[in-house]
Specification:
Shape: globular
Strand content: 5-15%
Helix content: 25-40%
Radius of gyration: 29 Å
Low-confidence stretches: 1-20, 261-273, 315-412
Largest sheet: 5 strands, mixed
Number of helices: 21
Oligomer: single chain
Mean pLDDT: 75
């Protein structure tokens, strides 16, 4: 199979269409044929899995001319389609969610090659099974695999992806996957392979690729209704008319108006009294805040007096929990945390001892006067012969002289009130997830991107890349160099067999951030690495000729690098030798060590640990302790550093 036409000119896109060669197993027709043979109960089960948008597909054909045109302009490193010198399309999970309606939150699926007990068959065998299987776990897993094999992530194999089948049928699999991210990853991987090889097969969802263009690039002569998901509005005839009209008007693609914002979901019914309901809600919200504020003050005063009386009497103080470290209001389960209200000061609402109904202060009225009218009985303390005061001793973390010493824990400072308000604004689920909140040092993050800092979400590539840029420009010492995680992603996925110097510079030098840092002074290079849904940090010590792997997962220490890590080391050392202008670095002279670092207590905080390692690691260990129990607070502080940075173009949104 040849690949003529991939160098077609923009001035005559239609005339070369017949010469283009592209093969794909993306087949919406086959998928819809099977779905039409399933009963309504199975359709309902598919909707419960959040795959219901696929049942609404009306666009069954893959238009090779527009797909080839987009593939030629696809930057797999930056994951964007360069339409012109001034306009481009971002290929993100948000867009997949907009078009297909797939989930865009959850774990990143790592396809494993471990076999499962379920025998693997061809796509036709899976179709037969789906027709007869009852609704259950086996049906759901088989349907996900079939959807990936025909629409979401098809390969060139007639029997589909065998490893994906075994991954879905593994004992540890659970359907909390970010399927939108999986679609993007597979499409990028497939286009990368197509661009670098001479094969005619293209892996990935070409249906999504062509719909991405017509949904985001609009022309005034063709009007399309806005639906959610977008795939509902597009038929084969409409897609054909849309593309032909653009060629007729401009003789090439890429001349429409680019719409980057995700359209809001249209509302079928608008309540006439929505303003009145909102006013009632806000009034109730203020009342709740006032009552909780009064309760906070009462609890603090009771706690303070009980401690004073206990120390004065020479007995142990009444057990009363200390105030927990702050996490945003939704983390503690406050019912009003998701509506943008001002968070409360950190406190603990536990009752400080047995009380009767007469001992409870009056909670009605103004917040300021509540303390004045509080019953005297609630504030009385036992008589004491002398008063004593307690002092909290602050101690600095001990200086670590070796990277193999376990890290100490220190008390963490409280989060400022202005940061709490900014966090509540970011995590407000009622607001537009596509709204841009961070724009600094050439990176842009939306509310949807920053949502990974909330709760137990995994840190995404976009956020990790933005934080590397942030640290690079904030490092005043100019001895550290931070490299984009996208470099590691491309090296790991492409598995290069030969790494010549010219090839490395041509492919990977663009991932070094545009900064005025003097490379001659660089001592340490930091590269975050995501493999199998787990973040680690590789530190290259160019002065001591040492490569350190900082892994918060713990376990058995590694004594040598894997093949992927070895390729990364070759790429990084080649780039550093080129930038420094000196001799080449000999990888064989570098030692490989895995220092003792704090370990994560769950499966989702690895990205936060990697961020903290980049922030506080030096060649001799951590310059500041990291407490694994403070991960929720670390998440919010890292988020706040970017939100309130003086270089953030949207900083005024978070200032009063």
């Amino acid at each position: 199979m040849n690949r003529q036409g991939r160098q077609q000119s923009d001035t005559d896109a239609s005339s070369t269409t017949s010469e283009c060669t592209l093969l794909t197993r993306c087949s919406p027709t086959r998928f819809l044929r099977l779905c039409s043979q399933l009963d309504e109960r199975k359709h309902e089960a598919i909707r419960d899995m959040n795959f219901g948008g696929l049942l609404s597909i009306k666009c069954k054909e893959v238009r090779h001319n527009i797909c080839l045109w987009l593939i030629e302009r696809f930057d797999v490193g930056l994951r964007k389609i360069q339409l012109s010198s001034t306009h481009h399309l971002e290929v993100t999970p948000d867009v997949v969610n907009e078009i297909f309606g797939l989930p865009m939150h959850g774990r990143i699926l790592q396809v494993s090659s471990n076999p499962s007990e379920h025998p693997f068959g061809r796509i036709r065998d899976c179709e037969d099974r789906l027709r007869v299987l009852p609704i259950g776990e086996e049906f759901r897993r088989a349907f996900i695999w079939y959807a990936c094999a025909t629409i979401l992530a098809p390969t060139s194999r007639v029997d589909g992806c065998r490893n994906l089948w075994h991954t879905l049928h593994g004992d540890e699999f659970r359907n909390d996957i970010n399927w939108a991210q999986y679609v993007v990853n597979e499409l990028v991987s497939g286009i990368r392979h197509f661009q670098q090889s001479q094969a005619a097969w293209v892996h990935g969802s070409l249906v999504f690729l062509q719909l991405l263009y017509v949904v985001k690039v609009r022309i005034s002569s063709v009007q399309v209704p806005v639906t959610m998901p977008s795939i509902v509005a597009w038929t084969d005839d409409l897609l054909k008319i849309r593309l032909q009209q653009e060629l007729r008007d401009s003789r090439s693609f890429g001349h429409g108006e680019v719409f980057e914002d995700v359209p809001n979901t249209p509302s079928d019914v608008e309540s006439e009294d929505s303003d009145e309901l909102r006013q009632q809600y806000d009034a109730a919200q203020r009342t709740i805040n006032e009552q909780l504020t009064i309760m906070q003050r009462v609890m603090r005063r009771l706690h303070s007096r009980r401690r004073s009386s206990a120390h004065a009497a020479g007995s142990s103080p009444t057990a009363f929990p200390s105030s927990p470290s702050f996490s945003h209001a939704a983390y503690h389960g406050f019912p009003f945390a998701e509506h943008g209200t001002s968070p409360l000061h950190p406190t603990n609402f536990a009752t400080p001892g047995p009380q009767t109904s007469q001992d409870i202060p009056n909670m009605q009225g103004d917040a300021e006067s509540a303390e004045d009218v509080m019953p005297l009985r609630a504030m009385m303390v036992p008589q004491a012969h002398r008063r004593s005061r307690t002092h909290r001793v602050r101690r600095m973390a001990q200086s670590l002289k070796s990277p193999f010493v376990p890290q100490p824990h220190t008390r963490q400072s409280a989060i400022p009130m202005d940061l709490k308000e900014a966090i509540a604004f970011v995590f407000n689920t009622d607001m537009d997830p596509s709204e841009e909140l961070v724009s600094l040092y050439g990176t842009h993050l939306t509310r949807g991107n920053l949502g990974c800092f909330e709760g137990s979400h995994w840190i995404g590539n976009e956020v990790m890349d933005a934080y590397c840029r942030f640290l690079q420009h904030e490092d005043n010492g100019s001895t550290k160099l931070f490299i984009s995680p996208y470099l590691a992603e491309i090296v790991v996925q492409s598995k290069p067999k030969k790494l010549a110097k010219d090839s490395i510079l041509n492919q990977y030098e663009r991932f070094l951030y545009d900064t005025a840092i003097p490379y001659g002074q660089v001592i340490e290079v930091f590269l975050p690495l995501l493999i199998k849904n787990h973040w680690t940090l590789i530190v290259f010590d160019l002065y001591k000729l040492r490569i350190q792997l900082l892994d918060s997962l713990g376990g058995r220490k590694k004594t040598h690098m894997t093949g992927a890590q070895n390729n990364l080391a070759k790429v990084v050392l080649c780039l550093m030798a080129h930038k420094k202008g000196g001799g080449e670095f000999n990888l064989e002279r570098f030692s490989f060590v895995t220092p003792d670092v704090p370990s994560q207590t769950n499966e989702h905080d690895c990205g936060v640990f990697a961020m903290k390692f980049m922030e506080h690691w030096s060649s001799d260990g951590l310059t500041k302790s990291i407490d694994p129990t403070q991960m929720p607070k670390y998440r919010l502080k890292i988020l706040g550093n970017m939100l309130l940075s003086q270089h953030n173009a949207h900083r005024t949104m978070f200032q009063k």
